[in-house]
């Protein structure tokens, strides 16, 4: 009986081994035979932990670009708009539909390889998606640059809320199409019509209200971008990247808030340059670039940070957000930076700006900090005995002002108390003298 059980167990194990070998062998045979080159993915899924911090900042509201959100029902309304864009493009360019389909078919393997997640679309569906999404972006950029191309009923350019949602969607890491494909589709246009205008010129104009895009010139690095989030990341990165600190992350300390630094004697000034990394601290004066904070700022920074965290990039934009989060703790910090032109608040309430920066850095881990030396210098300056005393005196003075000088009645009460105290002292002295 025992021998029979052993035989049954062995037979069951052999069947499992045979089945597993067959399954793995099938998967191996399914791999591409061409091993000479593999395309590195550049369009990532945002990690779930970061997505939970603010799902809306990573999710399209109006239009799906690429395969990752294509099945979302609320985005299907834009598919007919994409078809109209294709019809307009065919009419204007004079190119045949078969030429466009052949072009995207030649790029299918490359485009598939750009996405971290595999697509559930079959080849026909994937090519249709690539063509419609690519032409949609080309038409969008052209209409933005050439207003005469817009139809009178074009809702995207007539409806401010739709434009806002569209710009939000174009900033999403998960909602991208490779730039090389879009560039190739744009090349089907008559070059005399474009008059030397490149795709990145059009993109630079389209994203002008995002971050400091409008004030930043295109750099050589921008032309290496594989999609538009990477384009914005390269555009806003330092021109001369700084070497990472030689000491581990836990040894450097972030700086005090803006108001605390001011109390310690630090002066603030708006930088003349537009790079986010034009930050300098010299002889007690901290110079920072101006930044417009508007409806797209959170989406912009969150997706650039996600791109840095997912890809093999320096964590420079992440470092900038950490620095701003350190400088901004309260609405009073925002008000100070607004006063000096460092922040231009298009959100309205200073509290909204403070909340934005205080929540951007959550769930982010980095062992690189671009501003480590700067923060070290700020801390050294604000913590020396003289500036530490100055900071404390500032806080005492502000506390007294709030407690006793916030309104006329408080001032009158304090004055009356002082007079009463003086009279009491005089009376006591007189009494003592009379006794003697």
List the helices and strands and how they pair.
Layout (H helix, E strand, L loop, with lengths): L1 H28 L18 H6 L25 H15 L3 H10 L1 H7 L8 H23 L9 H4 L1 H11 L8 H8 L4 H4 L4 H8 L21 H9 L21 H6 L3 E4 L9 E3 L2 E4 L2 E3 L3 H14 L5 H12 L3 H9 L3 E3 L4 H11 L11 H12 L1 H20 L3 H28 L1
Parallel strand pairs: 1-3, 4-5
Antiparallel strand pairs: 2-3
InterPro entries: DUF247_pln
Pfam families: DUF247
Keywords: Membrane, Transmembrane, Transmembrane helix
Describe this structure in words.
The protein has 436 residues and is mainly alpha-helical. It folds into three domains: 48-206, no CATH class; 249-387, no CATH class; 406-436. It is built from 20 helices and five strands. A hairpin with a 2-residue loop joins strand 2 and strand 3 (285-288). Helix 6 (123-145) crosses helix 9, helix 6 crosses helix 11 and helix 14 (297-310) crosses helix 15. The chain is elongated, with a radius of gyration of 31 Å. The protein starts with a helix and ends with a helix. The chain crosses the membrane at residues 409-433.
The protein's oligomeric status is single chain
Structural class: mainly alpha
Helical residues, percent = 55-70%
How many strands, which pairing sense, and closed or not: the largest β-sheet? 3 strands, mixed
Distance between the termini: 122 Å
Radius of gyration over alpha carbons? 31 Å
Content of β-strand: under 5%
Low-confidence stretches: 32-37, 245-250, 385-401
Shape, please? elongated
Number of helices: 20
For the biggest β-sheet, the strand order reads 1-3-2
């Amino acid at each position: 009986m025992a021998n029979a059980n052993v035989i049954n167990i062995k037979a069951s194990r052999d069947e499992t081994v045979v089945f597993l070998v067959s399954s793995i062998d099938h998967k191996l045979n399914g791999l591409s035979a061409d091993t000479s080159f593999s395309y590195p993915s550049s369009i990532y899924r945002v990690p779930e932990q970061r997505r939970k911090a603010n799902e809306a900042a990573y999710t399209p509201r109006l239009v799906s670009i690429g395969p990752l959100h294509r099945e979302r029902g609320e985005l299907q309304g834009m598919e007919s708009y994409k078809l109209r864009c294709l019809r307009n493009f065919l009419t204007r360019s004079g190119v045949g539909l078969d030429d466009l389909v052949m072009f995207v078919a030649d790029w299918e393997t490359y485009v598939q390889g750009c996405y971290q997640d595999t697509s559930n679309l079959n080849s026909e569906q994937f090519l249709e998606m690539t063509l419609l999404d690519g032409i949609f972006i080309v038409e969008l950029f052209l209409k933005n640059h050439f207003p005469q191309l817009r139809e009178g009923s074009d809702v995207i350019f007539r409806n401010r809320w739709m434009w806002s949602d569209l710009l939000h969607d174009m900033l999403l890491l998960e909602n991208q199409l490779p730039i090389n494909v879009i560039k190739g589709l744009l090349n089907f246009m008559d070059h005399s019509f474009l008059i030397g205008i490149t795709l990145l010129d059009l993109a630079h104009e389209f994203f002008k209200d995002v971050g400091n895009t409008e004030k930043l010139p295109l750099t050589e690095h921008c032309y290496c971008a594989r999609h538009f989030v990477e384009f914005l990341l390269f555009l806003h990165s330092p021109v001369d990247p700084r070497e990472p600190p030689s000491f581990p992350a836990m040894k450097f300390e972030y700086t005090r808030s803006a108001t605390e630094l001011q109390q310690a004697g630090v002066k603030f000034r708006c930088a003349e340059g537009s790079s986010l990394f034009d930050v300098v601290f010299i002889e007690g004066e901290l110079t920072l670039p101006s930044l417009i904070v508007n409806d797209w700022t959170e989406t912009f920074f969150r997706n650039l940070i996600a791109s840095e965290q997912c890809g093999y990039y320096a964590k420079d934009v992440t470092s900038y957000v950490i620095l701003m989060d350190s400088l901004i703790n309260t609405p009073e910090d925002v008000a100070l930076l607004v006063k000096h032109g460092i922040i231009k608040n298009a959100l309205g309430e200073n509290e909204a700006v403070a909340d934005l920066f205080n929540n951007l850095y959550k769930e982010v881990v980095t062992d690189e900090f671009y501003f480590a030396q700067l923060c070290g210098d700020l801390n050294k300056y604000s913590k020396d005995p003289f500036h530490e005393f100055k900071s404390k005196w500032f806080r005492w003075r502000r506390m007294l002002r709030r407690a006793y000088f916030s309104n006329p009645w408080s001032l009158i009460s304090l004055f009356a108390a002082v007079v009463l105290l003086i009279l009491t002292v005089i009376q006591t002295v007189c009494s003592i003298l009379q006794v003697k």
